[in-house]
Design a protein that fits this description.
about 425 residues, alpha+beta, 3 domains, seven-stranded antiparallel beta sheet, three-stranded antiparallel beta sheet, about 20% strand
Length: about 425
Amino acid sequence: MTSFLNISLSTPEPLTPSERYEIFEQEVINHCPERVELLEMMHAFTPNRFRDLLQRRQGTAAPDHSESFKACETLLLRMLSTGEKARYRKEYRPRFNAAEERPDKLPHIDVTAAQHWVAKRAYGLGWTKARFPDDRSRGHDYSRDRPLVERIGKKYQWLALDELLCSLADNKWMSERALHGSRRYVGPLDIGFHRDIDPTILLTSEEAASPEDSIPRSEITMRQTSEHELGKWPFEEDPALGIASLVSRTDAKGWAWRVLHEHRSVSERYKDKPSREHGLRKQEWRFLLPVIVKREDEQKLIKFIRLQKEIRVDTWSARNATDDGYLLEAPWRSTWEQEQWSTMDFHNIGEVEIAYPCFRYHWESHLDASLNDGAHALIPAPWLAKRLGLTPHHLNSNIYADSSGRTLFVSGQSPDDGSHAFIDQNLF
């Protein structure tokens, strides 16, 4: 509710005092070095409560620069046109007048009045004590989480709140600029954390029939080792030698697939786990994740990786979308990040623009009580899906197809050994 201003969309977009000052400087001052210097001197001659307080504590009286300020202001006004002078007096001069005051805030929606409206509207939608005589909370323990079973009256309140938010989004400016640069409402993420259940989740089980079933997963196998051999086991083979053969797979029908994401992990634990710190005896894992760079940056990135001599998985990872866009809102809605390139700064190498072709979707379990473990999926990055014309399959959101219905992207995950995503090699 506090995301909205009590200012109608029929009026020009409201500006905070700081925004007005910045626009004035950009349009009137910054193009002329003399104007910039004069304005800087005016700020230096303006009383400053913190600077003056420090001087008083040091036993020094704060100097009076009022005459110097007026002289600089007179020189600045001589350089401005008639229209610029009018703008200065209206848009910028109050900054100096209010040096000891906080700038006025833009008027927000009255939260108390909004709460009263929601309560009244809940009654108007049909809730009455006579109709729901046993409508009361079942839980008694304090918790910030929503209860598994809500009162009927609470559901009426949710309906009323959503109605009010829709009305405000259609008619009022927002209080803060969103990522899209405006105070006009564009999408649900503009009003903070409000959505909780993703109605588009249609994840299939691991056993469901899918084209991925015929794509080799190249599971990891570990040979049996005695306790005496355990210290030598990690150095017997170099897993990196076989990585090149894992980036492409061929399914049972002969179709070639490129790996966009793969995480595999195998662990072996001691049987007497309680007597040991963590019980882990052996573990082997691999993580395949391609990244895209421009041709002119390819050697720069390779040079950095060679100098580092390591790849940190917490730095190189698929983009995460947690509790943001609904699963089937990808790739078309702005709740999903649409930008392709992100800039990474490499020490002693410079900046490189990198694109990730795969996104990881998360919907946390505490938001939806019907999802004990939440929901997770790997999907093609929205920028990639748009470029290739891919859309999620209507019966299986782990599959993305082209306009003809041909499957070009498949993904899946298992609670045992990780997750994977493959794309038609002819596209990539």
